[in-house]
Design goal:
There is one protein chain. By secondary structure, this protein is an alpha+beta fold. It has 11 helices and 12 strands. It has a domain of 210 residues: 2-Layer Sandwich (Ribosomal Protein S5, domain 2). The structure holds alpha-D-galactopyranose (GLA). The site of alpha-D-galactopyranose has 10 residues, from helix 5.
């Protein structure tokens, strides 16, 4: 247990013991993530390059002899209780934590897995609505817990797919696979280059210490708004682009992965102008991901940083998922001496930026850029220095 001991774990175990008058039998943790580059490419069968971070969702649980589920959320100071045979409707939008739990359980049952009842306590420190995938961490933690309690033998990739299905079907966000995948399969000190078409992946060591660099995440304090409807709208525009490009090229395309930039540009003018911009982002972003990974492997962080900057411009101008506060933060970051690159990370419309910078400037960056941003945008920012962690873990206590 030492490896996993930490405050969220201690809090969850204490709450469990007080509530259920016995020690829990299982401990699960599933991390949030930061995406270094490759945004809005996952649901277009493209490439992404995220790493898991040391912010996590923790569940401690014990099986029960019946079909009841009794859970307590430490973060929300709320309980949920139901029978597995009657999960029913997900409770209400404002009880999202319970919705995530129920939707994963429903998905598992729909796929034919037989679940036993359990008592559980949930705790976590992934900031919510910040673009660091607190919901994916939640979903992956629940699926991992059931996998352990009921010995379901589900692979980590399938855990990710089940968690994604729960989000798509029950929560209604048509998200891609990136967040759940990295939360389930992340590797310490590495980012994963994921091919979202084949689901093949490769761990690429970050070797930041060797390069005297850090990955710094800044939470803009802007809670992501509009996220579900705008996210789904972007997804539909990309799908529309695929249909139109198939017609224009005379080639049945499955996704925007099937076209390179040069060919895309030959047909772009014939597309609806907005759809063309959305597609251009995806096509160029895929190339930036493969280029960025090659840069990292060659220890060329200067060019890696430039690709991050270009990714931000594309997300701001072509994909239109940034917001004024994030643009300000990114601009301040990019021009700070010693910062190699900075961009918005995650779904967009607020949330966090991610920057790569020399260790030597991290402190002064925090002391300078954060207050500058706060006074310009009247928001409170917070900073996380990123440590790349391993994906979800299950421990029998
Ligand atoms: C959200 C989704 C992901 C991905 C990103 C954008 O985080 O959950 O699947 O699409 O947005 O890259």
């Amino acid at each position: 247990m030492n490896k996993l001991a930490g405050s969220q774990t201690d809090i969850a175990i204490d709450a469990f013991t007080t509530r259920f008058k016995q020690a829990p039998k299982y401990l699960v943790r599933a991390p949030g993530r930061v995406n270094l580059i490759g945004e809005h490419t996952d649901y277009n069968q493209g490439f992404v390059f995220p790493c898991a971070i040391d912010r996590e969702m923790v569940i401690v649980a014990s099986p029960r002899d019946d079909h009841r589920v009794m859970v307590h959320s430490v973060e929300y100071h709320e309980d949920d209780e139901f029978d597995l045979k009657e999960i029913g409707k997900i409770p209400a939008p404002e009880r999202q934590w319970a919705n995530y739990l129920r939707s994963v359980l429903s998905t598992l049952q729909k796929r034919g897995y037989r679940l036993s009842g359990f008592n559980a306590v949930l705790a976590g420190n992934v900031p919510q609505g910040a673009g660091l995938s607190s919901s994916a961490a939640y979903e992956v933690a629940v699926a991992t817990m059931c996998n352990g309690i009921d010995q379901l033998n589900i692979s980590s990739k399938d855990i990710a797919l089940i968690a994604q299905q729960a989000e798509n079907e029950f929560i209604g966000v048509q998200c891609g696979i990136m967040d759940q995948f990295i939360s389930a399969l992340g590797e310490a000190d590495s980012a994963l280059m994921i091919d979202c078409r084949s689901l093949d992946y490769r761990a690429v060591p970050l070797r930041l210490e060797e390069l005297a660099c850090s990955i710094v995440i800044v939470n803009s304090g802007v809670q992501r708004g509009l996220v579900d409807s705008e996210y789904n709208a972007r997804r539909n525009q990309c799908a529309e682009g695929v249909v139109a490009l198939s017609r224009l090229t005379g080639r049945a395309m499955e996704s925007l992965r099937d076209i390179e930039l040069a060919e895309f540009e030959q047909h772009a003018a014939a597309l609806d102008a907005t759809v063309a911009k959305r597609c251009r982002h995806v096509v160029t972003e895929n190339k930036r991901v493969t280029d960025a990974v090659a840069c990292l492997e060659a220890s060329n962080l200067d060019d890696f940083g430039l690709l991050m900057n270009a990714s931000h411009a594309s997300l701001r101008d072509d994909f239109a998922v940034s917001c004024p506060e994030i643009d300000t933060l990114v601009e301040l970051s990019q021009k700070y001496e010693g910062v190699l690159g900075a961009r918005i990370t995650g779904g967009g419309f607020g949330g966090c930026t991610v920057a790569i910078m020399y260790d030597a400037v991290v402190e002064s960056f925090i002391d300078t850029v954060v207050p500058e941003y706060e006074s310009l945008c009247h928001k409170q920012a917070s900073v996380y220095i990123c440590r790349a962690m391993s994906g979800a873990t299950l421990l029998a206590l």
